[in-house]
Specification:
Elements: H1 28-57, H2 62-65, H3 67-90, H4 92-111, H5 116-144, H6 150-178, H7 183-186, H8 188-202, H9 216-234, H10 243-264, H11 280-310, H12 315-322, H13 324-343, H14 345-363, H15 372-396, H16 406-438, H17 446-459, H18 464-467, H19 476-479
Helix pairs in contact: 1-5, 1-6, 1-8, 3-4, 3-5, 3-9, 3-16, 4-5, 4-8, 5-16, 6-12, 6-13, 6-15, 9-10, 9-16, 11-14, 11-15, 11-16, 11-17, 13-14, 13-15, 14-15, 14-17, 16-17
């Protein structure tokens, strides 16, 4: 049983396949579903490291090849809103399996690409599959796990996702240095094959639910709105596109989302349920947590620049140095449930927000002559507390969500995280450009990168305004505290 087992009565049981083996409980289901997150996050970080090599092989400018990343995120944004509806209509397990197979096929297509156009088209298909894979996989977990065990299951689910960004840089550096860049896509094939086999064998079926007709107008409005904002943030501070065009993306995206808000008001069939934000725990997790995720999205990007450009390390050296943060994240995964059970969500989120923000700022104190053991120690501690915050936020979002709205909550959470990730990277690029201008520099140096960590760390403190307003017993059903009170 999970660490979070308690006398609390579990939530209502969902209809599952009676033939599903009883062994598929505890850690097994979230670990299997987590393989999909691992495949996605590993591919994203490996690709970022490999872009210069890929650009030379395809005879393209590296800046143009950034389209391979941007178009993936755009496809994800467009297809995310439909994922919850499809899971309810056709069955979450079925959609999850189809998405994993399509992700593997499109990964192979990326590996066989011989031009930028081939690569971009394959990445669009990969992004569409990824949009269905992660939120639907999370939905399978939410519908097969009692609330009293949800935090422990979420901890296991996010373990593979945390490993991807950490081992991605050294793997990407190794692959493009000693093998062919195409293998950064081919390595998804065995992962997907194992994942599909395990899901088909061990993950129980979740019965299809009665759903309303699909909201096509809402789908297009949210898709184009998210695409406009993401494309705008992706190009913020990069000087790749003219500033008026970037502002046009922002304006168009914001206008589409404004029209969607008007369309969704009082509409029971809206593709995204904005009324979820009236639930305090969901609002604190998504809106308050956004300020934490901004820093979490910007920091890996800035840390890579600091170590490689500021300190002159190779991508392989920098990746090996930052690998230690995975150890802190993994240790936290076993520690999170008892910590939350002892102190509760409100206290953990508020105190940990301060600790995490201070640690983000500490990265800006690294110097070229800072001992590597000290950098690794700070990254180790940072990985622990950052992962604790992720686990707490992910669990709290579903604390007060009933089963009928789980699919919509999962979709909304995924869309918000996708948007915030783009905002974080855009914010980092904007800060770095601003500090270059202020210091009169024409290129990045350690002196222009370090101050950005101070700003990003300070932004995390805004989340306290949401966490401190939570009730003292917020989320207690998830960690078993309500049984003892």
């Amino acid at each position: 049983m999970s660490e979070l087992e308690s006398p609390v009565e579990p939530g209502p049981q969902r209809p599952v396949d009676p033939a599903a083996p009883t062994a598929a409980i505890g850690w097994m289901i979230p670990a299997i579903i987590g393989s999909a997150l691992f495949m996605q996050t590993l591919n994203a970080t490996v690709l970022s490291n490999a872009l210069p090599t890929m650009a030379r092989a395809l005879h393209e400018d590296p800046l143009r090849l950034n389209l391979a990343i941007t178009m993936y995120m755009l496809a994800t944004a467009v297809f995310l809103p439909i994922s919850g509806w499809a899971a309810d209509r056709f069955g979450a397990k079925r959609i999850f399996l189809i998405a994993m197979v399509l992700y593997a096929i499109s990964s192979a297509a990326c590996g066989f690409a011989n031009s930028l156009l081939d690569l971009v088209l394959a990445r669009i298909c990969q992004g569409a599959a990824g949009a269905m894979m992660v939120p639907v996989g999370r939905l399978v977990l939410l519908r097969t796990t009692p609330k009293s065990e949800l935090v422990g299951a979420m901890s296991i689910l996010t373990m593979p996702a945390l490993l991807g960004p950490v081992i991605g840089p050294p793997i990407g550096g190794f692959v493009v240095t000693f093998w062919d860049w195409r293998w950064i896509f081919f390595i998804n094939l065995p992962i997907a094959a194992i994942g599909v086999a395990l899901v088909a064998r061990f993950v129980p079926n979740v019965q299809e639910q009665q759903v309303s007709p699909i909201d096509w107008r809402g789908l297009w409005l949210t898709g184009f709105g998210m695409a406009g904002l993401i494309f705008g943030f992706e190009n913020l501070g990069r000087d790749v596109l003219p500033a008026p065009l970037v502002l046009g993306f922002f304006a168009g995206g914001a206008l589409c989302l404004w029209f969607y808000a008007r369309h969704a008001r009082g509409n029971p069939h809206a593709i995204l349920d904005l009324s979820l934000f009236r639930i305090q725990t969901f609002n604190a997790s998504i809106v308050g947590g956004a300020f934490m995720r901004l820093a979490m999205g910007a920091t890996p990007f800035m840390l890579a620049l600091l170590l490689q450009i500021g300190f002159g390390m190779s991508p392989f050296q920098a990746g090996l140095l930052t690998f230690i943060s995975a150890a802190g994240a993994l240790v936290m995964k076993t520690a999170a449930p008892p910590i939350l059970r002892r102190f509760g969500f409100r206290t953990v989120l508020a105190v940990n927000a301060v600790i995490t923000g201070v640690l983000f700022m500490a990265y800006g104190l690294f110097k070229p002559d800072t001992p590597h053991w000290l950098i690794m120690l700070v990254l180790l501690v940072g990985g622990f507390f950052r992962s604790l915050q992720f686990t707490s936020l992910n669990g709290l979002a579903y604390a007060d969500i009933d089963q009928a709205r789980m699919s919509r909550a999962s979709t909304m959470s995924s869309m918000a995280q996708q948007l915030v990730q783009s905002v974080g990277i855009g914010l980092a690029a904007m800060l770095l450009h601003a500090f270059m201008v202020l210091q009169g520099q024409s290129h990045l140096t350690a002196a222009t990168i370090s101050p950005a960590f101070i700003v990003v760390g300070a932004i995390t403190f805004i989340s306290l305004a949401f966490f401190l307003r939570l009730p003292k017993d917020a989320g207690d059903e998830l960690n078993g505290r309500s049984a003892r009170v």
